[in-house]
Predict the structure.
Amino acid sequence: MKQKYRITRKHYTLSLLFFGVLIVLFGCANDKSDASTLKKKIVRISHSQAVTHPQHLALLEFEKIIEEELGDKFDVEVYPNEILGSSTNAIELVQTGAIDFVVSSTANLETFDDIYEVFSMPYLFDGEESYYKTMNDEGLIDSIFNATDDAGFRGVTWYTAGTRNFYTNTRIETPEDLKGMRLRVIQSPTNVKMMQAFGAAATPMSFGEVYTAIQQGVIDGAENNELALTKNKHGEVAPYYIYNMHQIIPDVLIGNVRFLDSLTDEEQQIFANALEESNRVELELWDEAVEEAVKEAKEMGVEFIETDTKIWKEQVVGLQQEILDENERLVPIYDRIQEINKEVEGE
Ligand code: GCU
């Protein structure tokens, strides 16, 4: 006869003891050395890139400065490769304060605060020079960074994410060739509209899903900067990269508002300096990273295709007005960027 298993007081005490030991062991293993560690605030930063990407290196610089100057109070942890969740999920974690910072494309921020729609307008900047001049216009950028407190986050610095171009698994030369293709876009309503205006079927999904989706034939390609071809290996599955240059959109490091407001004046100053330095490091590494990516992608078999960007622009530029009509908040920002385009042209 089978003996019925009964939980006795002895079993209960033993299991409590067992779990108690586990907790103590786990605690010791994680205790970096002294009691002060326990008092440190762990500052968690999430991003979507590989550990060799300029953004990861720039965040390590931020970590280094904060820990050098405020190491008794803060322990900064940088989590790459969407390991804390896709960009959209990580933004939600920042909103609730479960993590403190995330680097996000402005396109992914759009559904959390529509002020960020402005950057998704195709062909917003006349070129890189206008883009950099806009991003370095502190008055303008701070007005955007500080406009999202109600959504629970605030922009604290930005990183460049280059120029976005199409790449596909069959060769394309003109916008006509996009017809009928299923192409991945960032999870942003404006990007969906842009892709539709180009005549392709927009498939929104997170960055981390793109490689497998192309490989399995769920989509025919995507659009991004050159680093996606190598650091995320997209060039293996979509080896035709065409320089149609539809967007130059930045990434923004956003922080939880409550955490940022909890910093003392002195800490705020140190954070501001560390962020400035982190931005500087990323920008300094960017051009070389793109050059290397192109070289490496060519070795992988990627073909880079030049095209007349005017014919691509004609197809979608009408969207700018459409977006402005739907969101008046963007008008002063858009007007200022147009002024910068003109200033750069005149220089
Ligand atoms: C770039 C950008 C990311 C963005 C990604 C994407 O890598 O830097 O912020 O999330 O593109 O296409 O999703």
Observations:
- The CA atoms of residues 125 and 131 lie 6 Å apart.
